[in-house]
Write a structure and sequence with these properties.
The chain is about 40% helix and about 15% strand. It has about 425 residues and is α/β, with parallel strands linked by helices. The two termini are about 20 Å apart. Bound molecules: nicotinamide-adenine-dinucleotide. The site of nicotinamide-adenine-dinucleotide has 23 residues, from helix 6 and strand 7.
Length: about 425
């Protein structure tokens, strides 16, 4: 079967990692395996040019992408990332993981993702707004409340979602709150959305601890990434008795055997834009982060962080994947051989998209829920989905990641089969 256009360019890149995860699941798909090629290619991928007049009068062009990997089970859904290293291939992998994630927790969505190749720290607010508005306009031909619904990801937030919602609404001539999620509350955002991903990471971590007999009280957590997801995860783990022994972000790594003060780290982040110089812990070389002894190692930054070499050194019981795609395929095998449990991204970080789904439902019905109601419903979906994935993995004696892929791919491919091929 020819697959030429979608051959990964880098063997350790995110698209190659995703494809090898698909390879693992095929033996467990029975008759549905005949549709597996569906998982290996996007439904559509859009590349857009974003020309902007910068504050100094120069015209600069940026590259933007929106990939809809699957629309089989519903509209596309997935975040938008602003990062200087964004490529179409990365967005393709991130969109595909959204298909798996949405199906793993049974949301009525396909999978999509977007990105702009830009370093937002080098932009003024005006330039950031211009890029966001032009990008939204360009991808406006394929997004919409019933088509594809973007959300925040790395370096994007509620303010950017507000600009996206406004731009799309101006273009269609009507206020369309449901076109993006992760919006400010005043524009139809949902209570609980900002911390939803971190809350989900914590809930899945807590369930893992319960199943593996690890007491949360005093559990040691090493955390890479202290942004939206990492900081909320740290707060909840620390608030439930765990010790955050090491935190790393793009500015450095800090360590404290008795546990870092999370409120202090938050304060440091707000003041300095990073935690690397935090005085409440010992600064250690970045690479040493991977040698810190922990019960939970939580990557919450970018993909590809757990390489084979690091996987051989890691001293932990559970890798809880808050980031998307943090573990390379070979590293996954090494961790399994070493008896380290890996809780896959598609389950561990699904809290964000679940509350995004709640936001979208609330926007459609123009009826808003309380935060307690949201957190209660979030917990119910997470715990129920995780139970199914855990049991699937146990039944087949496979890794949790493959278990999650079995559950998700069965749903996606069954929908594919039942819809049939057009024409
Ligand atoms: P963010 O931009 O808020 O934070 C990113 C963090 O990663 C920052 O602390 C940054 O300093 C750190 N980082 C960046 N480069 C690094 C490096 N080289 N070494 C160490 N740390 C580095 O992003 P976020 O929204 O918290 O997303 C983090 C991860 O979680 C991403 O993989 C994202 O796809 C995933 N995720 C996010 C959401 C969400 O709702 N925001 C949902 C699901 C998954």
């Amino acid at each position: 079967m020819s697959n030429l256009s979608y051959v990964p360019t880098a063997p350790d890149g995110p698209w190659a990692t995703y494809l090898s995860q698909v390879d693992q699941v095929i033996p467990y798909l029975g008759r549905l395996a005949r549709w597996h090629e569906t998982l290996r290619r996007p439904k559509r991928a859009l590349c857009v040019d974003i020309p902007i007049e910068m504050d100094d009068g120069q015209v600069t062009h940026f590259e933007g992408f929106r990939v809809q990997h699957s629309l089989t089970r519903g509209p596309g859904k997935g975040g938008v990332r602003y990062h200087p290293d964004v490529t179409l291939e990365e967005v393709l992998a991130l969109a595909a993981w959204m298909t798996i994630k949405n199906a793993a927790v049974n949301l009525p969505y396909g999978g999509a993702k977007g990105g702009v190749r830009v370093d937002p720290s080098k932009l003024s607010e005006r330039e950031l707004e211009k890029i966001t508005r032009r990008y939204t306009s360009e991808i406006g031909i394929i997004i919409g409340p019933n088509q594809d619904i973007p959300a925040p990801d790395v370096n994007t937030d509620a303010k950017i979602m507000a600009w996206m919602m406004d731009t799309y609404s101006m273009n269609v001539g009507a206020t369309a709150t449901g076109v993006v999620t992760g919006k400010p509350i005043a524009l139809g955002g949902s209570l609980g959305r900002v911390k939803a991903t971190g809350r989900g990471v914590f809930v899945i971590g807590r369930e893992t601890a319960r199943r593996m007999g690890i007491p949360l009280e005093g559990a040691r957590v090493a955390l890479q990434g202290f942004g939206n997801v990492g900081s909320a995860t740290a707060e909840l783990f620390a608030g439930n008795g765990a010790k955050i022994v090491a935190v790393q972000d793009h500015t450095g790594t800090v360590f404290h055997a008795k546990g870092l003060d999370i409120a202090g780290l938050m304060h440091e982040l707000r003041g300095k834009g990073g935690i690397g110089a935090f005085a409440g812990g010992e600064r250690i070389p970045d690479e040493q982060f991977w040698d810190v002894e922990s019960d939970f190692l939580i990557p919450a930054a970018l993909e590809g962080q757990i390489t084979a070499e690091r996987a051989r050194r890691i001293q932990t019981r559970v890798v809880l994947e808050a980031a998307n795609g943090p573990t390379l395929a070979q590293a996954d095998r090494i961790l399994a051989e070493r008896g380290i449990a890996v809780v896959p991204d598609v389950m561990a970080n699904a809290g964000g998209v679940i509350v995004s789904y709640f936001e979208w439902v609330q926007d459609f019905s123009s009826f808003f829920w309380t935060e307690d109601e949201i957190n209660m419903r979030l917990e119910k979906i997470l715990v129920g989905s995780y139970r199914k994935i855990w049991e699937t993995a146990e039944t087949h004696r496979i890794a949790l990641r493959t278990g999650a892929f079995v559950v998700a791919c069965e749903r996606v491919l069954l929908a594919r089969e039942e819809r049939g091929l057009y024409p």
